[in-house]
Amino acid sequence: MSALPLTIATTDYDHFRDFRFGLVKAEGIDHTWLTLGHHECFARFTANREFDLSELSFAKFCTQVSRPDADIVGLPVVCSRLFRFSSFYVNRRSGIRTVADLKGRRVGSPEWAHSAAVYMRGWMQNEMGVALTDVEWYQAGANAPGREEKVEVNLPKGVRLTRVADRSLSDMLAAHEIDCAIIARPPTCFLDGHADVVRLFPNHVEMEEEYYTRTKVWPIMHIIAMKRSIAEQHPWAPRNLFNAFLESRRRSLERILDPAVSRYPVPWLTQYARRMRDTFGGDLFPYGIEENRPTLEQMALYTHQQGIAHRQLRPEEMFPAGIMTKVVI
User: Fold this and answer.
1) Distance (Å, whole) CA 83 – CA 109
2) Which residues, in sequence order, are CB contacts of 218 under 8 Å at separation 6+?
3) Which of 55, 116, 125, 204 could form a disulfide with 86 if both were Cys (CB 3.0 to 4.6 A apart)?
4) pLDDT band at 32, cuts 50/70/90?
């Protein structure tokens, strides 16, 4: 049987490196890997399905996989994951000191289906008592105008969202045209040292460690999506791909946890990584369904509540049936 040719598009991640370079192989598969910026992966896969597998925003994935006629499915492979309490930027002139102070304020994000904002809006609503309808929402490009929503959304009743095409969130925040931005990358005005723009939670690391300890949620930003037709026509392919991603990740973690060789030009990185491994129960960057169930369930809930997913999915519905089948020898 000849190998199945597949195209894979992601940005450059160390945990994909050995698979991408062919040092790890997916049995029965001949891959062509395109290394692109993640926004390009999102846009081209969402609009045209240009690749067989692609890195995809988790929130945008939830929109597409929950459609009645969904033509994609996921692999339980994490491209990028980050806690996001660092993502709240406020203008000092608004007098915002706590998340409760965001009630009645103007808050922006680059897209409604922006994974970082989805997690934080969900936290505000479900844990902090700030409902979606309590805030006046804005959508604009992060540091340049013109960013548009990439997937369909159905805003919940009473939610107010103003889309701004000719201004960036950075400019609006610096000019005090909005009070807060929830944004994955620090806005330019913050990086440039604007006197009025600060993080709402300067102690975000401590908040994030407490949050994980309490919830076991380790937020996923981007995952791997694939055309459903591949899983249907070649039911062996998803698990073989998953196995290759697993082995590539194992080698990446082995490099970063190696106490004898400094493979990355960062002092004490190995010691920090080993401490984080222990904090996360022995798995520094877990793949799989059960290993990520609290996180998968939370995103399924939040995207449904926020009008991004068409329905609330169970984690198992996001991935090919049987992909986590265990083999005992």
Assistant:
1) 16
2) 81, 83, 212, 280, 286, 292, 295
3) 204
4) very high
Position 1 pLDDT exceeds 70: no
Which phi and psi angles does 10 have, rounded to 5°? Answer: -150, 170
**Domain CATH number, residue 133:** 3.40.190.10
Is residue 329 pLDDT above 80, yes or no?
no
d(CA 139, CA 108): 5
- Chain position carrying tokens 């690391």: 205
Same domain, 234 and 155: no
**Which residue do the tokens 């697993």 mark?**
246
Same domain, 101 and 75: no
The domain total for the chain is 2
Tell me the DSSP string of 190-225: HHTT-TTEEES-TTHHHHHHHHHHHH----EEEEEE
Choice among 47-61, 130-144, 192-206, 257-271 with the minimum mean pLDDT: 257-271
Nearest Cα to Cα of residue 185 among 113, 91, 302, 84 = 84
Structural domain of 111 = 85-215
**Residue showing tokens 């692609």:** 54
Distance in angstroms (rounded) separating the CA atoms of residues 303 and 65:
12
- The answer on 244 and 300 residing in a single domain is yes
One domain for residues 45 and 124: no
> From the centroid of its chain, how far is CA 142?
16
